[in-house]
Amino acid sequence: MSNSSFLTEFLHLTFADKRELQLLHFSLFLGVYLAALLGNVLIITAVACDHRLHTPMYFFLLNLSILDFGSISTTVPRSMASSLWNTRAISFSGCATQVFLFLFFISSEYYLLTVMAYDHYIAICRPLHYRTLMASRTCVKMAAAAWGSGFLNAVLHTGNTFSIPLCQGNVVEQFFCEIPQLLRLSCSDSYFRKAGVTMVSFCVACGCFVFIVLSYVQIFRVVLRIPSEKGRHKAFSMCLPHLTVVSLFVITAVFAYLKPPCISSPALELVVAVLYSVVPPTLNPVIYSMRNKEIKEALMKLVQRIVFYQS
Known about the structure:
Elements: E1 9-11, H1 19-49, H2 56-85, E2 89-91, H3 92-125, H4 130-133, H5 136-161, H6 179-183, H7 191-223, H8 229-258, H9 266-277, H10 279-290, H11 293-310
């Protein structure tokens, strides 16, 4: 019986064995990563540089873009390097670091999306108290709470996962170190040690989800009572991107972690992992900029500045 303390490395699942397909995977992931990098950096720069966007909603959007960039940078570059250099190995410490950082960014993003739902609720349902309830100091505290909660969640799960004895080999059936796949390597009598921590996080996640749903129930009740069509359209334009991002995040994560074992297969799990770890960070900047006039104008001004300085 081998213990996790004796493991020095893990082996990832590869997307392909043939060299040509490995290079194709590298090229596709490079394109996706550069698109995510460009989109999120543009959002961050636009919000930071345009004083018109120095509001609570865009402050939280800036934090969301930072978290998106961090989460995709934790998994995709490592997978690209594996395909380029034709290696599956990752060190024990490297795997633990990847688990911690991915959990940190993903958890913080979920908590931040909950905070953003509260921001939308106050903006639409209690507009007269918005400046008081969403003051700058309050927004910073809420963002810090989201980041801090994500950090604690990552520490808790990473520490608990890597303290469990692993006696089923060192092959992780995923393109990055993912906790469900690592738990499959654990000894059967150690699995229940993880169950308690998982239930706590599950309850917190459900609480956040219920809060988001209840917030939007109140928001839609108020919006549907707005007499002017222009007012309703403005309110929906504010909420639709956030609702789309939350739906994308929750649906892909739920399917990844709660899908029935009977439909589980290495190929399906690989596709699902890409959907919840790669697709949301890439699409979120697009979702937030498509229907947002202020973001579009800020991005246009930013591009014009860059072109002007280069010329």
